[in-house]
Amino acid sequence: MSLTAKRASRYIIALVIIFTLNFVIPRAMPGDPLTNLLGEDVILTDSSVIELRSEMGLDRPLFEQYLDYWHGILHLDLGYSFHRHSPVAEIIFARMKWTLLLAVPSLLTGGILGTILGALAGWRSANSCQKASTAFFLAIYCTPPYFLCLLALYLFSFKLDIFPLKGFYDTGSAADIALHLFLPVLVMTLFSLSRNYMIMRGSVLQEKSSLYAAFARAKGLYDAEILFRHVFKNALLPIITLLAMDFGFILSGALFVEIVFSMNGMGNLIYDALLSRDYPVLQGSFLIITLMVVSANLLADILYSRLDPRVRWH
Amino acid sequence: MRHNLRNLAFVLFLSILILGTACQGGEESSKVVLKIGTPNVVKSASILGDSNMGVWTHLSNPTLMKMTEDGKIAGLTAKSSEVSEDGKVWKFVINDDLYWSDGQKLTPDDVQFTFSYLRDNLPSAGWMKSTIENISVEDNAVVFRLSKPYSRLNLEFATYPIQSRHIWEKVDKPMEHTNEGEIVGFGPFYITKTDLDAAVIYLEKNPYWKGQAPKFDALEIHTFSNMDVLSLALEKGEVDAYYKYAGTYPYASIQKLKDTDNFDFVETDNIGLIFLGMNLQKEPMSDKEFRKALSYAINYSEILKLDGLGYGQVPNAGFVPPSMMDFKETEKLEYNLTQAKSILEAAGYKDSNGNGILEDKSGKDMKLAFLTRNDYMRTTELVSEYMKALGIDSEIKTVDSSTWIKQKDAGEYDITVTRSTPWGMLMHANWGTGYFDSRRTGEGVLHVLDDPVFLKLCDDILSSTSDDQLKDYAYQLQDYYAENLPAIALYWNKVETPYNKAWKGWYSDPLYGIFNVDNFLSVEKEQ
Hints:
The structure holds 2 protein chains of 2 kinds. By secondary structure, chain A is mostly helical. Chain A has helices at 3-28, 46-55, 62-74, 88-123, 128-142, 145-159, 174-208, 211-219, 223-235, 237-248, 255-260, 266-276, 279-307, and strands spanning 80-81, 86-87. In chain A, helix 4 (88-123) packs parallel to helix 13 (279-307) and helix 6 (145-159) crosses helix 7. Chain B has helices at residues 2-25, 51-60, 108-121, 127-131, 153-156, 165-168, 227-236, 251-260, 288-297, 300-306, 337-346, 377-390, 401-409, 422-426, 452-463, 467-484, 517-522, and strands at residues 33-38, 65-67, 73-75, 78-83, 89-94, 132-138, 141-146, 189-195, 200-205, 218-223, 241-242, 263-269, 273-278, 312-313, 367-373, 393-399, 415-420, 487-500, 503-504, 524-525. Chains A and B meet through helix 2, helix 6, helix 7, helix 11 and helix 12 of A and helix 1, helix 7 and helix 13 of B.
């Protein structure tokens, strides 16, 4: 078996195990989709409960439900949500587009800016400006996301009245959507940027004292050349792992932002499904996240092997 | 390079400012729009499947009956109602000046269709199957023939919005039916759009409405996932009033709104309440003396002060709040630790090993499983402390709502802090019976009381046919609560609904608060 085939089979086994866990974990929690379906002040007779459970397929043996689950996956059918009254695939794709609009720009901007600024901060000797920027990014990095979101909203939406308080849009025009997304994207970018900045700075500080960097300096290479041609590549490895993880959790990572800005995104969807034990939505969302995490890992593996000759595709 | 970057950043910031100003400037309109802010987020635009959406529908699809400000039942879609002497035939005469927003007339046939359709398709209307034998149209009235006397039918019909036959007869699975566009209604306003991504539900005037004309042009319901942001939206003037089904504006945030001097409050006595529920199927909660002692161990004034911030009053042993119809003044609950201890001692609960914890009747230290949810954490901790002072240890288990429901239904708890909603207090045989009757189940109900005396009282109420008789049963029931304490009310609270002073004429009913047809016909913008 070739190395690529071995690796591919490893990923397939991982997917099967994770998909099975996606089925098991929601069912291991107390309650089921019927528990929280009708509202707190509704009374039911036992026969109504039995009827509903049967309609939702909850009265069937677990193994049968498991087989159904796999049947659905293999036929690209994610099931039906009794809480949201729609097929799960429709719900997820409707939400996903918004979350991607929210998360992709912030991850890209935060990734690129954080890496470059962090590399520069780690390479150059610390002046007062760099000390201030490091302190600033450290403060952002340490701030609870929920608090930072509220703070940004309070300052820019409530006090300065520049941005709206909630939702993805009012009128639905492109400018209106951009205006609604700007502040949440800014907050997410700041988070991503500050984390990448701190890690890249630390990584470059470590690499800077390596022998190969001293050798390059002795050869008479310019600072920028040493940093961006030699040190940068080696310092980038931890960031790649983190970016791959970010990409994997891109759909669920915006939860706090979505709650504060009342946005109907994937984070909110998953959180709500968790509270209401909406198995089909949980399974569908986790399935998409699993695929993204596995693909991101695969991509990270490939990038690692390209960047670092010590890491090979095996 | 650095200079260019700085310029670029400046231009970007300027563009955003211009964009923001331009977008906000575009919102100017001559229409008078009332905006309500709510934390009741709609999950899907299903008026029968989503409980929050169901509440918003009450304005576009009014109910057959309504509850008035003083808790009485009156006609809404129905002009009048009458019940036969044996309580088995109800006749509702339908108003003949109601029109759907698509121009068609609302007929008794629509009403008949609604209840037949709900009976067959809506799980929460399952009780109709065993109660309603036949629904017929006689002239301009709808007649319900019941299999048994049911005195609460007119009250039940204050909660089901009337649907149009010509729209809904084509829908096979109403619970699964969603519609984010226009929903045909016959109220003064009808839903034109449910925009979940903008978090707004839009309602416009019904062009065919013949009743009293609304005093504003449109209504918007803005949903917020975060209560702090909703408070900011109120302060900023982005929404004009607050609404939460079966809930109040957070007491801790009231003063901040008052400080702006832009807000007034509709203050009403809640008919729902916060109470201490007990698993009556287990020892020692099944012991009446134990429950009595527990009721003396609770410092009600302190709970009211710390949890309700003083917005309410110390409750009576009769559980039912004074804002409910046929309230009876029973003994006020009293904090008296000495009395509590002596009751327990007399009942045989003693601390024989002197470790500060009483032993139960089998001789083991008492440690109760205290099941609670985050919403009631503060009250739970207080009650746990009071129990400790009495010599009863407890283990607090804080869980999410689904786990609470599951464990509560499985009886895996001893005591719990929970609440009743206004409709919860009215459902089943009224006066909170739906929370305790062991023959029923449901998400928020405890269904732990199987005392034949209580069950008979419930059945008597349900089949009662005269107001005097009903009042007598209501009094008996409150005496039963006071005597047996199947649950202990912790405080009776107020419902505070803030609204911007730019609007006047607010009206609230005990069931749906300000979200009722009369309110939206009365509210107007100050000139």
